[in-house]
Specification:
The chain has 371 residues and is α+β, with helices and mostly antiparallel strands. The protein has seven helices and 17 strands. The N terminus is likely disordered.
Length: 371
């Protein structure tokens, strides 16, 4: 396994270097959009701070500007349920984030709901599935964000994560609903440098193991396989084999997953636990609250940026159990590592241990994944 990992890593670096040499002109485009010239200034809205709002999406002056704001977001709003506080002034100015769209779309919690849930829209490819709530906070509901003079467009329904970088001069066309794929100057980008790492099909397995009692940062031997997207499963019963109590007569499940995603200039990996209710007609709805959700996680790996040596990283939730907990919540998540770079970065996972304990109406699920 180590041999295969080394070979795969070597091929990835070789391809990354090639892409770097081919894309240098693309990431060194003049910053005309930042100066406010051209079409991008026509629909600029006044919002607090240095971030602008153009054509319904956020505009950052530079990648460094984006990195600084994302770092603040990760530190100040570690609880993803509080991200709406950061969005508030932009929301008032007309910005609707992808994260907020997810939330608003599921605001109808009635049992006779007919409109598709966010979960169903993601599965059918009608909207972008962005498991990283912090990045989804920066994206518009249509999956757009502008950095410097480039608009990045992320769309749902693409198995290889194909996305586009488009000159900001094409902003009116993007805002008008034209596909970025066919716009002048648009460049396609495949997740993981176009390597064959498809988004995993969502299947329910046997579930994770019972807790081993080992320290969360004690990793098994051998390196874990690589994947892109979300991996995990659904659990319908507690540790005693009893089904979860129904919510207004509807089946309830616990979903656990880890994500590893890359969005051209941004990549991240993290974990989430979530309670969902079957709406029968519209899909699964996240409005069923657990009594308590506790998680701990420890992960390590490499950050790959074309043209420079691999960067090692390791991270864990606050030491000690319970280390990270939430009460009366429907979901709980944690970003373990994020990175942003104009030369297309990737996170390579070497190990990822994940332990979660959920109490739902007095019933307990206590499980872990070690890779």
């Amino acid at each position: 396994m180590k041999k295969n990992y080394a070979i795969g890593l070597g091929l990835g670096l070789l391809l990354a270097g090639f892409i770097y040499s081919c894309k240098r002109e693309e990431v060194s485009m003049p910053q005309s959009g930042v100066s406010g010239k051209g079409a991008t200034s026509n629909f600029a809205r006044s919002v607090p701070g240095s971030i602008k709002l153009n054509y319904g999406w956020l505009q950052f002056q530079s990648l460094e500007h984006f990195q600084k704001e994302m770092e603040m977001l990760q530190q100040k709003y570690q609880d993803a349920s509080k991200l709406s506080q950061w969005e508030a002034p932009y929301d008032a100015a007309g910005f609707s984030s992808l994260r907020k769209f997810y939330e608003d779309n599921d605001r109808d919690t009635s049992d006779n709901r007919r409109n598709l849930t966010t979960d169903s829209l993601m599965r059918s490819g009608k909207i972008l599935d962005c498991p990283d709530s912090w990045f989804a906070t920066m994206l518009s509901k249509d999956g757009n964000i502008q950095i410097g003079d480039t608009v990045y467009c992320f769309r749902g329904g693409t198995k290889n994560g194909e996305s586009y970088s488009v000159p900001a001069t094409q902003s009116p066309a993007i805002a008008g609903g034209k596909s970025p794929k066919f716009l002048p100057g648009a460049l396609p980008h495949d997740t993981s440098f176009g390597l064959p790492l498809p988004v995993p099909e969502w299947v329910s397995g046997d579930g994770p193991d019972r807790p081993s009692g080992k320290p969360i940062c004690e990793y098994p031997s051998g390196l874990m396989p690589q994947w892109w997207g979300k991996v995990g499963g659904d659990m319908y019963r507690d540790d005693n084999g009893n089904p979860f109590p129904e919510h207004n007569g509807r089946e309830v499940k616990l979903n656990y997953h880890r994500w590893r995603v890359g969005y051209i200039f941004y990549a991240s990996t993290g974990a989430r636990v979530q309670m969902l209710k079957d709406t029968r007609f519209a899909g699964w709805l996240s409005n069923t609250y657990a009594d308590e959700i506790v998680m701990e996680a420890c992960a390590k790996g490499k950050v790959m940026i074309p043209g420079i040596p691999l960067i090692s990283w390791s991270n864990q939730t606050s030491p000690g159990w319970p280390s990270f907990n939430s009460y009366a919540e429907n979901k709980f998540e944690k970003t373990m590592k994020w990175t942003a770079n104009g030369f297309f970065n990737e996170i390579i996972l070497q190990h990822f241990n994940f332990h979660f304990k959920v109490t739902y109406r007095g019933q307990v699920v206590d499980r872990e994944v070690r890779q």
